[in-house]
Amino acid sequence: MRQARGGRSRVTGNIQPHTFRSRDLVGGHIVIDLVNTVTARDAEPIDWLDGYPRVLEWAALTGHFTPDDLTDLRRLAETEPGRAKLALDRTRELREALHDLITALIHEGAPDPAGAVEQFEDHWKHAVASARLTVRGTGPQLQVSVGTSGAEYLNHELALQAFDLLRALPLERTRVCPGLRCGWVFIDSSRGGRRRWCDMATCGNSAKGRTHYQRKRAGGMAQARP
Ligand SMILES: [Zn+2]
């Protein structure tokens, strides 16, 4: 993959098409679901965002954006493919900065891994520059739109959402899935707070299967020993 602006992008080369399904949205927050559009971060990362239309497909699945806005973005991308390509690069750059920030917060508490803070700051400032300030009963809010942000609308909205998330990230409940070839981040909102896997149906089950197999194998070998 082309080096993103700022000269830093840890996800390299391996971009694969992927049809997003609801089981890909297990992060507990749209920003974390964006981070999880790369899989196998613990091994050889695979980037599932293989084009701007794929980002729109993912965005539709999140339910966070209106169909009208997504249709407008699809048309924009058709008439201005260069801008759509730049927006995709920016989505990947924002995603990687957020991944580095969130995982560093989980593991260390107060990070600036490889300039991730500056990179996120850049994205946030661009978002704020395109935003309108509204004041409602709930207080002041920054709002972006396709009209003011163009092809960057998703990036701007995600950057604003990320700012809110990082201010209130429940660190004791934010985890990285230990599943093989996973590395997804999730917020554990279960009652007991003991969720270990991104998804019990995928990583949880395959880990259980492996443990069972290893036990069986270990048992077999023990029997074979003299
Ligand atoms: Zn997992």
TrEMBL record:
Domain Zinc finger CGNR: 173-216
Coiled-coil regions listed: none
InterPro entries assigned to the protein according to its UniProt record, in alphabetical order: ABATE, ABATE_dom_sf, Znf_CGNR
Tree of life domain: Bacteria
UniProt protein name: Zinc finger CGNR domain-containing protein
Organism of this sequence: Wenjunlia vitaminophila (Streptomyces vitaminophilus)
UniProt lineage: Bacteria, Bacillati, Actinomycetota, Actinomycetes, Kitasatosporales
